[in-house]
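Throughout this review, each integer encodes one residue's backbone shape. One record appears below.

===
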Amino acid sequence: MRGWLRRQLGESYERLLRRELGDDERAPAHVAVIQDGNRRYAREAGADTATGYEAGADTTERVLEWCQEVGVEELTLYAFSTENFERPPEQQEVIFDLLCEKLREFADAERVHEEGVCIRAIGDVDRLPDRVQTAIAYAEDRTRDYDDFVLNIALAYGGRNELLSAARSVAREIEGGDLTPDDIDVETIESRLYGRTVRDVDLIIRTGGDERTSNFLPWHANGNEAAVYFCTPYWPAFSRADFLRAVRTYEHRERSWRRTRARRALALLRAMGETELADARSILGRFRDSLPSTERESLDEFEVDSQETAPE
């Protein structure tokens, strides 16, 4: 009875969270996840490490489904960092075996092909064992023609290494005369980030209780001022409610940002002369719906006043 009641309450809470979210247009386009806690989950359950990673892989499949439900278009999973090479060889082998299995399983899954999921690896994949590289190539080749949803698997990935590699590439081209300092722009750097085009990150989720982003996608997340959601459940125990709370955090931050921009625009509008009014009204109009009702009324009153006093 208690189990049934707990499930009913959980499902009701998920429905409430889902209603709190906006439409798909307000969903984060790119979500990046640091899947922490697989080993701790296994240890607390009295199981071996492999069991923890297998349970985490099941969570990954569910998160892919949840992302598509709310309108996320790109998902990046931090599966194996450059620091993970320092772990004992037997732990690495468990991860490598699971990666090979899941990459091939995902690449052959009917749902992946029905929903147009493009699977890509980002990172210094040349450092991975040959069998993992072969599995990566298989998954990428099977899904390369899809573009409805992008699933990035960060393997042998390190944010600092990524930026350092891009800087070295630019320096070599400058030294060789193929590039000048004035030629360097955002696109110059992005084209050298592990050879993959990754859209800016809107939301980072980290499970397992640690509140740090661990050198993950610094260019794409920090440059875009991504929202960050830290939560205590280990990755295998990460639930749909946890995911919806993360999306809610992003949407609340976005609404707050829009309100701030709208208020600033309103203040500037009041201070501007007639020559700037048309542009200011256009800008403010895009944020009008984000204003509280009292401020929308203030804006409407100001619009009327400014039109009545405008020179003919």
Observations:
- The CA atoms of residues 174 and 181 lie 7 Å apart.
